[in-house]
Design goal:
Layout: E1 3-6, E2 13-16, E3 54-57, E4 68-74, E5 89-91, E6 94-96, E7 102-107, H1 121-138, E8 146-153, E9 165-171, H2 176-192, H3 196-207, E10 211-214, E11 218-221, E12 232-236, H4 248-268, E13 274-279, E14 294-299, H5 306-311, E15 314-316, H6 320-328
Parallel strand pairs: 2-15
Antiparallel strand pairs: 1-2, 3-4, 4-7, 5-6, 7-9, 8-9, 8-13, 10-11, 11-12, 12-14, 13-14
Helix pairs in contact: 1-4
Length: 332
Amino acid sequence: MPDLRKDPVSQRWVIIAQERAKRPSDFVHEPMGEAPSFDPFAEGNEDKTPPEIAAYRDRGSAPNKPGWRVRVVPNKFPALQVEGHLNKRGDGLYDIMHGLGAHEVIIETPQSVPSFTGLPDAHVLDILWMYRDRLLDLQRDMRMKYGLVFKNVGASAGATLYHTHSQLICTPIVPSIMSIKTQSCEAYYKFHERCLLCDMVAQELSQKARVVADSGSFLTFAPFAPRFPFETWIVPKPHSSHFETLGRVAMEELAFVLKRVLLKIEKGLEQPPYNYMLFTSPFHTGPSEHFHWHLEITPRLTPVAGFEWGTGFYINPVPPEDAAEFLRGVKV
């Protein structure tokens, strides 16, 4: 009998269709592909991208020249434009505003590689620290209300370039998905006087069936109601509402954890396409007792079709308990 499970954070229902259960090797997906003959993100091609916004560079190297470790540029085809005003207005019952926002690309390494998992831990730390720096810089703009850092790996996960990179989009409104998450967490806090994700961490540690890794300050686990096979969350154990307030020691641990969890996914699932999304509190909000930042990794092994679009339900053929057991067993 399938399970209907509800995620308490997103309020989303998921069907765990156990009778459709598959082994990891049963999933068919497109490979990451081969390096292109020309890579605009590679070192030496800095003039092929818009001028850099920020970079971690070797001492003495010039902007928009070789000598960088992590480099941030505006997206060449941005979803939103940073210049201008919102100009909110109505058209009858419809609301309109200018497409104001920011859309940046974090080029994670000068090397033409499809993943940062082959890089040293110190370099992964640089990537995460750049996420922090860009979020702190963009939240100074009072027009921006929310910033989402995300990563697409593989064509079916939305990546259009082979070279490993992340993106940051800031919006003038808080997206509905984030609003639902914060409202759910706030409602739980008002009723229980405890943080929802803190309680999730405690329960997962107690039950252990869905835990993938416990590094000390971060818990990695398959969520109770995952949308996709092998969906994995990384949650800090100490309560924290804003990713960008993370200190250096905790960020070093997160770099260690994230790299190894992605290595487990890449190795165990044979280089699948995947996304990850960093959910942190909206800009211009103080420390929150109810919201708890976290990172969600979603391998793209099953299609989203008419049923999912029409109902908001997802069908997942791999129970999270089985997914966690498999990932725990992948040696990296």
